[in-house]
Write a structure and sequence with these properties.
disordered C terminus, ten-stranded antiparallel beta sheet, 270 residues
Amino acid sequence: MAHFALTDATGRRYLSFQRLSLAAMGWAGAQAEPFKVWLGDWRLEASQGGGFPWRLQARQGGIVLSLELDPLKPAVLNGEQGLSRKSPKPGNASYYYSITRMAAQGTLELSGQELPVRGLAWLDREWSTSMLAEYQIGWDWFALHLDDGSDLMYLRLRYKDGTDDPANSSGTWVDPCGVSSCLTCDDIAVEALDFWESPTGGRYPARWRLKAGQRVLEIRPLLADQEFRHYARYWEGAVDVLDARTGAPAGRGYVELTGYAPGRAARSAG
């Protein structure tokens, strides 16, 4: 299974696609050396020689995305040397690493027009056999590129009553030089300031105040409706980051929200 989504801030629209395929006949697969992951003509692969830059290509519904990705910081291990525990129960954990800041450049074909694109990317790699315990409902995941060159990831796990699971919420701070440090719920405070009602019946947080040390940030979605409505249903989209005290721009990022859509509690991740 693969997901492909695009937030068109200028056109005020969110476009998303899903593909499923067997590995038979080479239709989909993954290999370590040289690195390559693909499903049809959606693919992420190492350049010739097996290293960086990686190349990302996806084509669907009149959208053609072609990017080169090159790390600006080293990979960091999230959790306990790469083991991210989601609950005390055996197996409710994942192996998890990130390259939090990558240079991205290439082209995007949209509405019949080819546009040059350049910016920053964030790579997450997480795998597990199971994720959540039966008393947990989902998570709020924040991945933020801050304008001072630092990066923040925070995974807020939630109980079924909607409150925080403080013992298992965690994150990673990466300074401008690429040095990382682990975060716990004692280091981060997240408060939802507004909510958005989905036409499918989900009610999602839609603006947040996030406090990390002396920093107080306000996080605002570029579009209210960035809900992925396919086999899985969740909200995942682009956000602006502001200094909550002054209102000045402070960064950009991505947020993922699961367990808010009715009948769609997140139970596992691939």
